[in-house]
């Protein structure tokens, strides 16, 4: 992992927006909630013990701006000390900007990713079969369903036609049917942030990054800000069986969020988030380079619809939740043999970026090689209590 700089972290407009995050403080052996400003990084944990608590404010951006906090250092130095290689454990480093919120993810929210899920299902996790199946699925369904509204009469008519042709799929059900796929991505507090290693199951041989917008939502269902995410996916596991979704999605270090939380204010709103273009770059030690992107404007379900299908009278999240919105990125570029498609190799550097949110950078390792996750909810509560913050 190369040393990160502020340029690798901040949005294009720098600290003009309201930026929050989390930093590990060695002197207290625990995390701090911080405000990232032009004149440094400020610990505001005395006012907001958790990011979750900040997001519960009526206006989180105004609430954060009203608290000066204690300056703990320059952003440049903290960012440079974040990557696990060469980290000085006596100095602060960045964490993922999420804590007590439940980690949720929506799947099959873009037409192109929906088609790839159908292909995964039919290939039964075998990348060698994918190309032939891709041509057949495209022949039956087409390659542009972006204007098809999920749950509409037109979508239900297509469903009946595809069932008659024996071409229906569980992925088409959640892609164009009335009910969105929303699942729990990983345990609370298990996310890794920018500069850290992200994890792949060691038995996976067909996998890919998923560049996504991550919404931060309060316990009342209010969307208060956004960040970037990598919903690391194992195509072979999920392709063999949808019942392996938890193993395909939830492994040590497989949930990456960052670099910071940008709260909604007059510089960045939900409408701005709806227009985000998210870029992806994968650079391997073998010289392989993969570029991709995901445009939120092409999502099949509006973010507010996905949030409404996640929280309400049927399901509550007292500490709020974050929601990965899915991706339109389809990893079809061959890396090795023709027709084999893309899969990660050890030490791939994945960069997910958006001008409004900065860059999320991770090195890919197997989950058993990544730093073990040891600081859970109990440890956080104990640490905050010892610091007399709760």
From TrEMBL:
Membrane-spanning parts: none
Keywords, ordered alphabetically: Hydrolase, Metal-binding
Top-level taxon of origin: Bacteria
Entry's Gene Ontology molecular function annotations: hydrolase activity; metal ion binding
Annotated InterPro entries: FAH, Fumarylacetoacetase_C_sf
Record family assignment: Belongs to the FAH family.
Protein name as it appears in the record: Fumarylacetoacetate hydrolase
The organism's taxonomic lineage, starting at the top: Bacteria, Pseudomonadati, Pseudomonadota, Alphaproteobacteria, Hyphomicrobiales
């Amino acid at each position: 992992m190369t040393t990160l700089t502020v340029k690798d972290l901040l949005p294009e407009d720098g600290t003009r927006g309201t930026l929050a995050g989390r930093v590990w403080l060695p002197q207290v052996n625990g995390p701090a909630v911080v405000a990232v400003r032009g004149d440094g990084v400020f610990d505001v944990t005395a006012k907001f013990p958790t990011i979750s608590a900040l997001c519960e404010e009526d206006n989180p951006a105004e609430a954060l701006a009203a608290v000066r906090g204690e300056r703990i250092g320059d952003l440049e130095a903290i960012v440079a000390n974040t990557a696990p290689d060469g980290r000085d454990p006596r100095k602060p480093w960045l964490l993922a900007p999420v804590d007590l919120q439940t980690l949720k993810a929506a799947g099959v929210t873009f037409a192109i990713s929906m088609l790839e899920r159908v292909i995964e299902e039919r290939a039964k996790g075998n990348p060698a079969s994918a190309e032939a199946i891709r041509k057949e699925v495209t022949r039956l369904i087409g390659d542009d369903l972006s204007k098809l509204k999920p749950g509409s009469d037109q979508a239900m008519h297509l469903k009946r036609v595809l069932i008659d042709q024996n071409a229906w799929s569980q992925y088409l059900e959640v892609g164009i049917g009335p009910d969105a796929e929303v699942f729990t991505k990983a345990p609370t507090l298990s996310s890794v942030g920018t500069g850290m290693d992200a994890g792949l199951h060691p038995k996976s041989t067909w996998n890919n990054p998923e560049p996504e917008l991550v919404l931060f939502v309060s316990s009342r269902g209010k969307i208060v800000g956004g960040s970037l995410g990598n919903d690391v996916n194992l195509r072979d596991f999920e392709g063999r069986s949808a019942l392996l979704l938890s193993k395909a999605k939830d492994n040590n270090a497989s949930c990456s969020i960052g670099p910071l939380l940008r709260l909604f204010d007059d510089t960045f709103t939900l409408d701005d988030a709806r227009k985000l273009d998210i870029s992806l770059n994968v650079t391997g030690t073998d010289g392989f380079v993969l570029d991709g992107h995901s445009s939120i404007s092409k999502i099949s379900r509006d973010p507010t619809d996905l949030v409404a299908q996640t929280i309400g009278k049927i399901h509550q999240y007292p500490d709020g939740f974050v929601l990965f919105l899915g991706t339109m990125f389809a990893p079809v570029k061959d890396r090795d043999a023709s027709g084999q498609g893309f899969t990660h190799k050890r030490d791939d550097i994945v960069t997910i970026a958006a001008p409004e949110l900065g860059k999320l950078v991770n090195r890919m390792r197997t989950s058993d090689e990544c730093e073990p996750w040891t600081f859970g909810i109990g440890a956080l509560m104990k640490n905050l209590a010892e610091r007399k913050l709760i």
